[in-house]
Amino acid sequence: MLTSVRDGVAWITLNRPDRLNALNRSLMFTLLAELEALMADTDVRVLVITGAGRAFCAGGDVHNLDEVTGQGPMPDRAARLRQVARIAETLYDGQKPVIAAINGACAGAGLSIAAAADFRIAAAGAVFTTAFLAVGVSGDMGAPWSLTRILGAARARQLFLECERFDAQQALAMGLVDGVVPREDLEAEVARRAARIAAWSPPAVAAVLANFRDAVVTDFGTFLDRESLRQVHTQSTPESRHAVERFLARERRG
After folding, report:
1. In a 3-state reduction of DSSP, which class is residue 164?
2. HSE-up of 64 (CA within 13 Å, CB side)?
3. Residue 246: pLDDT band by 50, 70, 90 thresholds?
4. Which residue of 60, 107, 137, 139 is 20 to 30 Å from 78, comparing CA positions?
5. 42 CB-contact burial (10 Å; exposed 0-12 / middle 13-18 / buried 19+)
6. Domain ranges within the chain, ordered by starting residue
7. Radius of gyration of the chain (CA)
8. Does CATH number 3.40.50.150 belong to domain 2-198?
9. Could you tell me the pLDDT band of residue 129, with boundaries at 50, 70 and 90?
10. Within a 10 A sphere around the Cβ of 152, how many other Cβ atoms?
11. SS in 3 state form for 121-136?
12. Given the DSSP bridges, would you call strands 166-167 and 119-123 parallel, antiparallel or unpaired?
């Protein structure tokens, strides 16, 4: 895995191009540790995850599917898999926005990772598939949960049960990705979007993310309680006061 931080944006690149960035035990635990560190880094405001070579991530490495879970009783194996599933959980629950820059093939657990991000921008040649049933497994990393919220239950179920490949334009039409650009423009487009988000107040951005997470799991009254607290909190921050000053200055200039 490769990581660089530029202007408040952390770029994480899965770097097993010879295996289409398939996830083995080492890469999973390295990615999890890096995500947790970057979420805690005050110099980082936005995370971007992408892949080296011609793939985003082809999912788990099918040459050794048992490498992560190991041997032993089923509850122990499930617990080990649940540990690495924190990758998707960290992406979804983190206080910083995540953009998946899908440069190529995106399948299985790779699709789960992309679905846990806040935005997905795809290269025109990218292809997608849930892939799990093709290797006789039900899936991991939370894809049914994430895809149901992005696409709706019926379409998410269809993608899993039909297990067909679809291209970037189809992904855009169904709402899975937020934009499709030529491959050579992908980095620049993602950098542009990341820079815009990185310019906002970090406490306000974190509160917006928390609001949207609550929007899908709470009743309206509970949501309004939490939203009100976050609004009051962010309104009292130095970042908010500075933003108001800048807004008023622009207003005075016309």
Report:
1. coil
2. 10
3. confident
4. 107
5. exposed
6. 2-198, 202-253
7. 19
8. no
9. very high
10. 13
11. EEECCCEEECCHHHHC
12. unpaired
What is the C-alpha to C-alpha distance for residues 152 and 73, in angstroms, rounded to an integer? Answer: 35
At 21-57, the pLDDT tens digits run 999 999 999 999 999 999 999 999 999 999 999 999 9
| CA–CA dist 196, 213 (Å, integer) | 21
Cα–Cα–Cα angle for 128, 87, 112, rounded to 5 degrees = 20
Instruction: Identify the CA nearest to 169 among candidates 124, 131, 108.
Output: 124
Q: How many residues does the chain have?
A: 254
Report the amino acid identity of residue 192: R
DSSP 137-163: ----TTHHHHHHHHH-HHHHHHHHHH-
Phi and psi of 70, rounded to 5°? Answer: 70, -160
Q: Return d(Cα 198, Cα 225) in angstroms, integer.
A: 27
Q: What's the pTM?
A: 0.95
The two tokens of residue 8 are: 């408040």
Contact assessment for residue 137 and residue 78, using Cβ atoms and an 8 Å cutoff? no
